[in-house]
Design brief:
The protein is α/β, with parallel strands linked by helices and 266 residues long. It has helices at 8-22, 27-35, 52-60, 74-87, 124-134, 152-162, 170-186, 204-217, 229-250, and strands at 42-46, 66-71, 92-95, 109-115, 135-146, 189-201, 253-265. The chain is 46% helix and 23% strand. The structure holds S-adenosylmethionine. S-adenosylmethionine is lined by residues 12, 47-49, 52-53, 71-73, 76, 96-99, 115-117, 120.
Length: 266
């Protein structure tokens, strides 16, 4: 059944805004402290979406790095290009499907990054093999994604509301195991870093906004819980009730994002 959801780019940008407004820590600072990208570097950002990470690196290097953002969503690429124009920056945004060979020469990049994206790859060996191929010797790969303990409160509330088990999330369930293992088998050196961000919601509504933006974005993962627009809306009502009960009990809603960063060197 076709479900007429809101646009993906809107959901992604909503979640980014909520992280910024209610979070205790800044993932951008964590990322740039860890990677310290330098002017003159060639950087490829895979699954760049609306360009969040690409623009972060561009700001950090004061426009001095050569940055390419690749994504398979033309809608998000258009958003990124529009923002690029607005900012007057020179980031290049182009189509890239990380399940296909990357359209770049061997040994081309100093840094290849992917924030909350590449873990959806169909064949991890293939995709991370491509990332390795396009990196220069000594070049670094950085992949961030949710760890299994991520957003526990979010999943607890949905579980309580739906009275059903949460379906497995490919991002978090694969991150430490399969994804770390695959990267470690291909790259010379691999390490796992973690980042924690406590999102404190002073009322229920912004939390529900976050829930909607998450369920919409990953809707294919949630098909065991709803099948059409009416069932989806009914679930949101139950989630709102469960969130209200928790809010009345605790006086606030705190959701902790636990993010892993895999940093590997070719
Ligand atoms: C959660 S968003 C993250 C976007 C961005 N990295 C950020 O941090 O804001 C996931 C991104 O992965 C992209 N994506 C999913 N599958 C892809 C594929 N096969 N090839 C390229 N990009 C893909 C989506 O279009 C989306 O932009």
């Amino acid at each position: 059944m076709h479900i007429d959801y809101q646009e993906t780019s809107k959901d992604l940008l909503t979640r980014i805004e909520i992280h910024e407004e209610y979070g205790s820590a800044n993932i951008d600072v964590w990322t740039t402290d860890l990677l310290d990208p330098q002017p003159g570097m060639k950087i490829l950002d895979v699954g760049c979406g609306a360009g969040k990470l690409s623009f972060l690196f561009d700001d950090y290097t004061k426009g001095g790095a050569n940055i390419i953002g690749g994504d398979f969503s033309e809608e998000l690429l258009e958003k990124a290009r529009a923002r690029n124009k607005e900012r007057g920056s020179q980031v290049e945004f182009q189509f890239l499907d990380f399940n296909q060979p990357f359209n770049f020469a061997d040994n081309a990049f100093d840094l290849c990054t992917s924030a909350f994206a590449i873990y959806y790859a169909r064949n991890l060996n293939f995709t991370f093999g491509e990332a390795h191929r396009v990196l220069k010797p000594g070049g670094r790969l950085f992949v961030s994604g949710p760890l299994p303990e991520n957003k526990q409160m979010f999943y607890d509330i949905i579980e309580e509301a739906a009275n059903a088990a949460i379906p497995p999330m490919p991002g978090s369930s694969r991150f430490k195991g399969d994804i770390f293992g695959t990267i470690d088998s291909i790259f010379a050196r691999t390490e796992l870093r973690t980042f924690e961000n406590h999102l404190t919601f002073p009322e229920v509504e912004p939390f529900i906004e976050y829930v909607r933006a998450s369920l919409n974005e990953d809707r294919k993962l949630w098909t065991s819980m709803f099948d059409n627009r009416d069932e989806y809306e009914a679930l949101i009502v139950k989630i709102t009730d469960a969130a209200r009960r928790r809010f009345e009990r605790d006086g606030k809603l705190v959701m902790t994002k636990v993010v892993g960063g895999i940093l590997a060197t070719k």
